[in-house]
Design goal:
By secondary structure, this protein is of the alpha+beta class. It contains 11 helices and 11 strands. The longest helix is centred in the first third of the chain and has 21 residues, at 62-82. The protein is globular and about 60 Å long. The chain starts with a helix and ends with a helix. Bound molecules: adenosine-5'-diphosphate (ADP), 2-acetamido-2-deoxy-1-O-phosphono-alpha-D-glucopyranose and magnesium ion.
Length: 364
């Protein structure tokens, strides 16, 4: 058995996994949680699970977070079953710990949770097949429709001020002011860009758009695409489901998926907003939302893409200035590289704003 197993045996033994453990590997490319895939044998058949250590620095109250997830997944299961779907595959299914709780706190005080592994489906870090991107849009739109009448007041705010871009700007300014790592001098251009575009911080909140139950982290790799049907089978990473703006869910998907390059590409000449992908996503998201988006939301979809790109670039820069404590990094300057792609992408979107608006007008 590998080192991971030796270290985590105690944790794994506290979940209701049937069968015998055969394999455990680190898994996925999320920036926040520590994710592992486990494989068990039961009655001669393989069964896989996801095990995650929740990031305590990011989520200060993992118990409330799991209450949200239990609430939202039970709701989705009911709706999925009513429409004749397969609730084992079309939403996350939490595996309880031995005492029946939705999480387990280990001897070091870390919080763990487990899900069924969604088989025969893939989460992509970049668009490989253009139609998959359209399907992801339908699924994220649908997710919002399914949760449209969810009792929003029962949801805990898992990360306060998560998409409060004004507050993000204040935190960024504090990070520049403190400059704890002495990195501000080398990123003056990036700092100036964020400051120059400050009006983006309040452009959405000025509009009086409806608060909805939204996902808030709609990256392409937070959706499982079915390997056979190529439909967006299951929306995952439900940690940030909270009241929010529909245009932010739209915008974050565009930021990540409609870019011609990876989020951490170092060659900035490769980074642009692909308008064909923008169009596919727009069509899919509007369809998936099933007529629920208001005129003002539809008109601000392109703004949502710009604001999410701006906010994310600012968050990467803030984390770089603060010494990379929030987002996982895999090389020096990783957060700076990520910040630079977002700036490049936003510059391109600013030039393409009218074209993006024309595209939305075609589908609204
Ligand atoms: P993070 O918050 O760190 O992004 P995620 O919950 O998104 O964590 O999980 C990281 C990755 O693990 C996902 O992008 C996906 O590839 C994979 N993953 C997570 N949950 C499942 C699941 N239930 N079935 C299959 N793959 C999963
Ligand atoms: C994080 O967890 P993950 O990797 O899906 C982050 C998002 C950022 C994204 C940037 C809880 O998403 O807000 O947009 O990285 N999630 C959290 O890639 O902060
Ligand atoms: Mg994720």
């Amino acid at each position: 058995m590998n080192d991971f197993l030796d270290e985590r045996k105690e944790v794994i033994a506290h979940f209701q996994f049937p069968g015998e453990l055969k394999e455990a590997i680190s898994y996925g490319n999320g920036h926040i949680n520590d994710t592992f895939r486990l494989m068990f044998w039961e009655d001669g058949k393989q069964k896989r699970y996801i095990l995650q250590k929740m990031n305590k620095e990011v989520f200060h109250n993992p118990v409330e977070l799991m209450e949200n997830i239990m609430g939202v997944t039970s709701w989705l299961k009911k709706k999925i079953t009513e429409r004749g779907g397969d609730s084992e595959r079309e939403t996350l299914n939490v595996i309880p710990d031995l005492s029946g709780k939705s999480y387990y706190q280990d001897i070091h005080g870390e919080y763990w949770r487990a899900y069924n592994y969604i088989e025969h489906a893939t989460s992509f870090d970049q668009v490989q097949n253009r139609d998959d991107f359209y399907q992801s849009a339908v699924a994220f739109g649908n997710f919002q429709s399914l949760l449209a009448d969810y009792p929003a007041d029962t949801l805990h705010e898992t990360i306060p001020h998560f998409h409060d871009t004004v507050d993000r700007f204040l935190k960024f300014s504090q990070a520049v002011g403190k400059d704890v790592c002495g990195r501000a001098r080398e990123v003056q251009e990036e700092i100036a860009f964020v400051r120059k575009n400050r009006e983006l911080t309040h452009i959405l909140t000025d509009q009086n758009m409806p608060l909805r139950v939204t996902h808030n982290d709609t990256k392409l790799n937070n959706i499982m695409i079915d390997d056979e049907t190529h439909k967006g089978i299951c929306v995952i990473d439900l940690d940030t489901v909270m009241p929010g703006l529909a245009v932010n869910d739209f915008g974050d998907s565009i930021r990540f998926g409609a870019s011609t390059a990876a989020e951490d590409e170092q060659d900035l000449s490769k980074v642009a907003c692909d308008l064909e992908l923008f169009e596919l996503y727009t069509k899919g998201f509007i369809e998936g939302c099933q007529g629920k988006l208001t005129e003002i939301e539809l008109n601000h979809l392109p703004t949502g893409a710009m604001v999410m790109t701006y906010e994310c670039g600012m968050r990467f820069l803030t984390d770089y200035l603060e010494g990379d404590h929030y987002f996982k990094i895999h090389r020096p300057n990783h957060n700076l590289d990520r910040c630079r792609t977002q700036i490049q992408l936003l510059k391109d979107m600013q030039q393409k704003l009218e074209q993006m608006r024309d595209i939305v007008n075609k589908y609204k």
